[in-house]
Design goal:
By secondary structure, the protein is of the alpha/beta class. The chain is built from 15 helices and 13 strands.
């Protein structure tokens, strides 16, 4: 009987998954896919390890994450019925100060993760719900939580510091950083894709609906644009990024908004959506001629260029810039504008290479090389899950 390991990345409106199979002694990627449009217009798409389509259909109704997991379970049963699932790995956004690396899920771990929900209300509940749903369906199968915060624990204390009184900081108030699984994957790929900068000073731009930058030195995180929560740093699809904390006080005291209303504004109504009033989706804004859409794009580029300058100062200069994630991988225009705004760093942009998505999109003589490297958080989760459970050997790490 073939053994399988499952990787889940559960979000508010999507469920990404990968299946790794071990028919004999070695593991390989059997399939990957996702269920999008949860709660609105659901669609399940899956491909095999060679990229061939296995499923592409629209189920009648998927109201929430549990419905999505039921749909996924039914599809997996139709594809791999009778197979043994020997481990499940999950992306969990927040591990707090306690979890500095992947861990096997226990009732205590689950309780700790629930306590962190206020720090990541857009993501943590869905991550936890996926773990609980798997526990109900596969109670004997071990699960591993892989945290977006863990990769940043190599940052120096001064980078983690939040300048508040000690009695508050002692409650776990510090800068954590996020998107760590993506940054860890990119760091693992640099020796292969861009070996000349792998041990140097690199800023990685993870630009998607959630967006952040991370400064790497020799593949280790030394600072990032995210902080205590995933509201900090860059302007994002529906989140504002860094702004004066006094604005929050004004929303509460001056405009008399409730705490819940302020949370909704910050997590769901701000960022690109808030500026444009049109959409949080970069593709919609790039296609629009509305001046407010242009303003949203201008602000996004401005904030990325500004934060890139700050992280370059932290590193004492940079050797390379890497674009990744949905916008970073798929928007030549945003890449061009950010590079042009950052030309003072020594970036000489290659328009032709950018149009074909690189991987290198800077000229050969450029002082700072610029790259496009697709991220793969699911593979990173698979690596951690396999190693922690002793299931997946080195061969799956390069699947």
């Amino acid at each position: 009987m073939t053994d399988y390991a499952l990787v889940l990345n559960a979000g508010s409106s999507s469920l990404k998954f990968c299946v790794f199979a071990r028919p004999e002694s070695e593991w390989h990627l059997a399939s990957r896919g996702q269920i999008d449009g949860i709660g609105s217009s659901p669609r399940i798409v899956a491909k095999d390890g060679e990229g061939q389509v296995l499923a592409d259909r629209r189920p009648d109704k998927i109201r929430n994450g549990r419905d999505a997991l039921d749909e996924l379970a039914a599809w997996l049963n139709s594809m791999y019925g009778g197979a043994q699932v020997v481990g499940v790995g999950h992306r969990v956004v927040h591990g707090g100060a306690l979890y500095t690396g992947p861990t096997v899920v226990t009732p205590q771990v689950l309780a700790d993760l629930r306590s962190l929900t206020p720090l990541a209300p857009l993501h943590q509940p869905h991550n936890i719900a996926a773990i609980e749903a798997v526990s109900e369906r596969l109670p004997k199968v071990p699960q591993v939580a892989c945290f977006d915060t863990s990769f940043h624990r190599t940052q120096p204390p001064v980078a983690d510091l939040v300048p508040l009184p000690h009695e508050i900081r002692s409650k776990g108030v510090q800068r954590y950083g996020f998107h760590g699984l993506s940054y860890e994957y990119i760091a693992s790929m640099l020796p292969e894709v861009a070996p000349e900068i792998a041990k140097g000073r690199v800023v990685v731009a993870h630009l998607g609906s959630g967006a952040s930058l991370c400064a790497l030195r020799s593949g280790k995180s030394v600072d990032s644009s995210f902080g205590f929560t995933a509201l900090d740093g860059l302007c994002m699809g529906t989140r504002p990024g860094a702004m004066d904390p006094g604005v929050i006080l004004y929303l509460l005291q001056g405009l008399q908004l409730s705490v819940k209303e302020v949370e909704t504004v910050l997590y769901k109504k701000s960022g690109l959506l808030g500026i444009s009033g049109i959409s949080p989706d970069m593709r919609d804004l790039e296609a629009s001629r509305d001046p407010k859409a242009r303003l949203a794009l201008d602000y996004f580029v401005y904030r990325v260029a500004k934060e890139l300058g700050a992280l370059s100062a932290v590193l004492g200069g940079i050797d390379g810039l890497v674009f990744t994630a949905g916008i970073g991988e798929n928007s030549p225009e945003i890449r061009r504008r950010i590079c042009e705004a950052s030309a003072w760093l020594g970036i000489e942009f290659d328009t032709v290479a950018n149009a074909r998505r690189g991987p290198r999109i800077s000229k050969a003589r450029s002082k700072v090389s610029v790259w496009v490297i697709p991220t793969n958080e699911e593979l990173m989760i698979a690596r951690h899950t396999g190693m922690l459970l002793g299931l997946i050997e080195a061969d799956v790490q390069h699947a």
